[in-house]
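Colleagues,

Please find the record for the two-part complex below.
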Amino acid sequence: MNGDDLIDAVSMVDDDLIEEAAEYKKEGKGHIVLIVSAFAASAAAIAVVNNLPGYTTDPHDFEVDNSVQTVVTTEASTAETSDTGDDIPYISSGIGTAPFTEPETEKSSSASYPVTNEVTEAAQIESPSKTAAPPSPSPSAENVRTEADPVTEPHVITEAPATEKIVTEATHPEESQTLPPRPVPSPDPPVTVPERPTPLPTPMPETTVTVPERPTLSPDPVLPVNRENNTFDHATLSGKAYSKKCVYTFDESILNEKTLNAFFESVVENTGVMAPVKTASEVSSEEMFLLKCGSADGQYYVFLNDSLSAEEEDKIFKTLGITEFN
Amino acid sequence: MEDEKIIELYWLRSESAITETDKKYREHCMYIARNILNDISDSEECLNDTYLAAWNSMPPERPSHLSAFLAKITKNIALKRFRYYTADKRKKSAQVPIDEISESAVSTFDVEDTSDLKELAGLISDFLRKHSKEKRVVFLRRYFFFDSSEQISELTGLSEDNVRKILSRMRKQLKEYLTKRGVKV
């Protein structure tokens, strides 16, 4: 027994264990995607809030902003969790994350409108307790103070909740649409927006691709297509129909190295078979492909696209130097 | 599309079986092939061969886990190609895990045919089931998917050092396990 045997044996371990290892990846990536998309959703929500028609630049409104952000983030996370179950994760490359953010962002933006309004109202109710402390240019805040208790202003802020209630009620008229225009506070107090971490995409594990020295593989003479009784004369490649025309021995140098998979249809057995086929460098695969024939070097069946005219077929034969048909 | 439906397409000999497989599992298979071959072009050919093999084996096969089924095919094809390429010279990518796991090889056990391999695979499955999920995942990510310690660390949240320690311990335990089970020792 050697390492190769063990590796081969590991390849044959139970499917559920392999699935588990593959799924584990999915979960792992899912969490990362979740965090990134949550950040994206919050960013989108903030952008929406900032652009709302009634949105004011009052510095205290930033409190409102944060509440909205929290609500939307939670929604986005929930939606995401239910989504992750279906997709296959990719493994190396974090593939599948890109299409994910777009609908989420959309969803969270639209959802943010009602939430924003509610929270804004709520925040306006709460605002006096916060606005009273710093010197506020807001006339509403001044009104509140004078009406409630101009003498004991500090007490209103720090002590009894009952006083606070009075203050809260006093602010209600402020919510009506016919508010007196607020004087624009000339020098805005410096507003520090809490820095949000920029969501960075998780780095893909990089695989260094080396240019290979490619030894030629020996051609596999056993192919699933039965070539003896002409039952597989018709084939499909990329949705196009082809038919077998002739056998020809090609100079291998004109053949492309890359193989494609074509489907061969048996007219006798009514079955389909897939087999690897080659293409020639001088003719497009939309017009022609070649199927290995027997074990002789360079011998191939020539399949041409059914839509080609007789002239076009002749042109291809001439290009390839095919003069005799087998 | 659900795996069952994809398998059904294979059984119906529908060409779209390959299209759907490609849509759902292309990256999964490419990842395995690329980890072993370390070359995109080779991996793409390997992927084509995987689809062909899947087409030829379904029917009669009806795998219960399509992703694992495809992963096994891809891995076997990629390893075969890798061994062909490295008959003379060694490439680094897949060779490292092979060299590592050879520590666990029991010298007195000869693998002569597929039934021996199946027996060995059964023992390894049992061995893995005795460990925690995390350790099983670390082991299989390394020796099935050929992930690097760095990739495993990123996936599991364990430090690279920790991953290496787990793997080293598991290799030793595997050797003991195989020896104790008396695999024709």
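Residues 56-176, 217-224 of chain A have pLDDT under 50 and may be disordered.

Comments are welcome before we finalize the supplementary table.
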